[in-house]
Amino acid sequence: MKTSELFFPTLREVPSEAEIVSHQLLLRAGYIRKASGGVYSYLPLANRVLKKIMQIVREEMDMAGGQEIMMPIIQPKELWEQSGRWEVYGDEMFRLSDRHERLFALGPTHEEIITSLVNADVYSYRDLPLLLYQIQNKYRDEIRPRFGLIRGREFIMKDAYSFDEDYEGLETNYQKMMDAYNRVFTRIGLRYRMVEADNGAIGGTESHEFMVLAESGENTVVYCPNCNYASNLEIAAAGNGEKAGSASNGTSLLPLQKTATPGQKSIKDVAAFFKVPEAKLLKTLLLIADGEPVIALLRGDRELNEIKMKRLLRCGVLLMAGDTEAKQYCGAGFGSLGPVGISLPVYADKEIETPENLICGANEDGFHYVNVNAGRDFTPVVFEDIRNVTDGEPCPLCSSPLASARSIEVGQIFKLGVKYSEAMEAVFLNKEGVSRKMVMGSYGIGVSRTMAAAVEQNYDENGIVWPLAIAPYQVIIVPVNSKNEEQIKTAGDIYERLLKQKIEVLFDDRDERPGVKFKDADLIGIPLRITIGPKSLQAGRVELKKRWLDEIELIDISVIDSYVADLLQSDKK
Ligand code: ATP
Ligand code: MG
Fold first, then answer.
1. Of 3, 126, 178, 283, which one is least surrounded by beta carbons within 10 A?
2. Ligand lying closest to the C-alpha of residue 453
3. Which one of 3.30.1330.120, 3.20.20.150, 3.40.50.261, 3.90.960.10 gives the CATH number of domain 247-384?
C-alpha cells in the first residue's frame, strides 16, 4: 500500500475526553473515529489489526474443534424471558421494537439464541459434544462508556458455546478453551495472566478471566509471586488477618463506654483522636440491597468487596446509602454509624469475629463507643469474608505474601452447567434413551478491547509499538528525499520485492519532509522501518530500524527482502 493512498487521518491534538493512551493514540494515529459515545468506526489500519486478531482467534478456535457460525444480533424478547434475563439484564440491554410493537434486544451476549438454536436440532447424545463460535458486534448500554475501545457500547466479541452430555465433557471443553485462550494471547504477544473470576450476570459454577497487565486497567488481579495463584480481586479469598488490637492476646473485655467525639468523622480522624491504629476501629457501611437497608461491618483499615457482599446477600443491585438515608435508618450521619443497638441486619467481616475492644460510631452525631465487642454488644447475622484482600497478606495456597496489579479483562470463560438448558429446556436423549439437560460452557474474547489493550502495553512517547503478530503492516519503506529519483526507484524496487515475499508493506511515497514521514511511521507503530538515504545508498545499503529498538542496522539492498522475510518468520516461531 502506498501511504499517499492510505486513509489514515492523523491528528495533532486529541480530544480531551480521551483519558488513556490507547484511546489517545488510536485517535491520533487515524485508527478510529467516534460516531457516538462508546460507538466507533474502524479506519483501514484498525481494520487490519482487528482482522489479524480475529484470524489468530479463528485459528485457535478451529484447532480446539470449534465451528464458526453467525447468529442474529436482533434477538426476540421471548427467548430472554425464557432464561429469565429480560429483567435481570436491566438497563445495560439495548431494546427496540418493530412496527408491530414486538420487543427485541440487540445481543449483549448469545446464550439464549444459541441454546434455542442447538435445542431445536440436537436430539441425541450422538450429536454431542458441540462447540460453536462466532465473531460479531455486541451491544451493551454501559453506564459509563469510556476509554475508547476498552468500554464501548458497540464492540466486537468472539463468543463460543459448548454443549456436552455431562460435566466430564464440559470439563474437557473448558480445558480446551482455556488452552486455546492461552495460545491466543501468547501469539498476539501480550503480557497477561489467567485468573479465577466471578461468574457475574452470565451465571454458572466456575470462571476464569484473561487479564492484560496495564496500569490503566479497571480491574485488579491479586497474585502470588511464589506460586500459580492468581485471582480477580473481586473474588480473591481473604484470610482472617492479624488480630486488630491488644485485647486479642487474652485480655479481658472492657466495659462499653460512650465518648464524645465532636467533629470526628472519618476513620483517619477518629483513629487520630483516640490515638489508636485504624485497625482498632469498626467501619460501618450502610448499604441498600435491592431496596432494603443493611449494614456491612469491617475493620477500619479494610475496603468492602461489593461482589462478595452481593453474593452473600444474593441481591441484584447494591448501592451505598446517602447521608439522608443514614439519618433515616440509623439516626446519625456518616462517620457516627455503628452496629450497637441498631435494628438493621448487620453483616460482619469474619476478621472482626474475635472480640477486641474496638471503637465505632454510636448512631448519634458526635459520639463514639469505645470497647465494642462482637457477641456482647451486637450480634451480626453472619461473619463472612466481605473485604478486599490487600498486598502482603498470605497466599491461600502457599502463604507467601500476595501482590497485586492493575489489568484489563480481554477474555472470560464460564462453566455454565445447566443454567440455560434448564431454564430453556434444552435436552437430549442419552445412551440409555433417558432425557438429559445439556451441560454448557460459554467463552468470550473482546476483540476490539484486545486491540486497545495491546496499545496500552506497547507504546512510547512517539506512538504505538505494535507486536509483530497484529501490526497493520509489518514494514514501512521511507525514502528520505522524495525528490531524489534514485531513492524513489530503490524504494519502489524494494517495495515490489517485499510484496513478492507476501510481506505486508507500506511505501511512504508522499512528498513530505523526512521528519514528517518518520513521525508518522512511529505514530502508527509499524514494527520495521526501511530507510533509504543518500549515504547508505552509495554503499549499496539501506537502514533497517526496529520500532522497539534505537539501533539501526545497515543491510545490503540485494538481500533486504530475504533478510526481512527471515526476521518475520523467526518471530513466528
Ligand atoms: P466487564 O466486566 O469489563 O464489563 P464483562 O465481564 O461484562 O466485561 P463478558 O460478558 O465476559 O464481559 O464479555 C466477554 C469479553 O468481551 C470481555 O472479556 C471483554 O474483553 C469484552 N467486553 C465486555 N464488555 C465490553 C465493552 N463494553 N467494550 C469492549 N469490550 C467488552
Ligand atoms: Mg467478563
1. 126
2. 1
3. 3.90.960.10
Note whether 247-384 and 473-572 share their fold.
no
Residues around ligand 2, an ion, CB closer than 5 A: 412
Domain range list for the chain: 47-236+404-456, 247-384, 473-572
Q: 140 CB under 6 A from ligand 1? A: yes
In angstroms, what is the span from residue 411 Cα to ligand 2's centroid?
A: 7
Centre of ligand 2 from the C-alpha of residue 449, in Å? 12
Question: How many helices (DSSP H) and strands (DSSP E) are in the chain?
Answer: 15, 31
Q: How far is CA 122 from the centre of its chain?
A: 34
Q: Is 151 in the pocket of ligand 1 (CB under 6 A)?
A: yes
Q: Measuring CA to CA, which residue among 159, 200, 161 is closest to residue 73?
A: 159
Enumerate long-range contacts of 301-304, CB under 8 Å, 24 or more apart: 301/267, 301/277, 302/349, 302/351, 302/387, 302/388, 302/390, 303/387, 303/388, 304/386, 304/387, 304/388
Q: How far, in Å, from the CA of 407 to the mean position of ligand 1?
A: 13
Select from 57, 235, 412, 442 the residue to mutate for testing ligand 1; criterion: most ligand atoms less than 8 Å from CB.
412
Domain 473-572: give its CATH architecture: 3-Layer(aba) Sandwich (3.40)
| Ligand 1 in reach of 28 Cβ (< 6 A) | no
Amino acid, res. 518: F
Verify whether ligand 1 is closer than 6 Å to residue 59 (CB atom). no
CATH code for residues 47-236+404-456:
3.30.930.10
Q: Are 251 and 373 in contact (CB under 8 A)?
A: no
Cα–Cα distance measured from residue 544 to residue 482, given in angstroms and rounded to the nearest whole number? 18
CB 76 within 8 A of CB 85: no
Order of strands across the sheet with 103-106? 74-76, 103-106, 94-97
Atom of ligand 1 nearest to the CA of 108: 10
> CA neighbours within 13 Å on the CB side: how many for 572?
8
Our answer on whether the CB atom of 531 is closer than 6 Å to any ligand 1 atom is no
Answer whether 411 contacts ligand 1 (Cβ < 6 A). yes
* CA-444 nearest atom, ligand 1: 14
What is the 408 CA–ligand 2 centroid distance (Å)?
Answer: 10
Each residue's pLDDT tens digit in the chain (573 positions)? 999 999 999 999 888 889 999 999 999 999 999 999 999 999 999 999 999 999 999 999 999 999 999 999 999 999 999 999 999 888 999 999 999 999 999 999 999 999 999 999 999 999 999 999 999 999 999 999 999 999 999 999 999 999 999 999 999 999 999 999 999 999 999 999 999 998 776 666 789 999 999 999 999 999 999 998 999 999 999 876 554 444 445 568 899 999 999 989 899 999 999 999 999 999 999 999 999 999 999 999 999 999 999 999 999 889 999 989 999 999 999 889 999 999 999 999 999 988 789 999 999 999 999 999 999 999 999 999 999 999 999 999 999 999 999 999 999 999 999 999 999 999 999 999 999 999 999 999 999 999 999 999 999 999 999 999 999 999 999 999 999 999 999 999 999 999 999 999 999 999 999 999 999 999 999 999 999 999 989 999 999 999 999 999 999 999 999 999 999 998 876
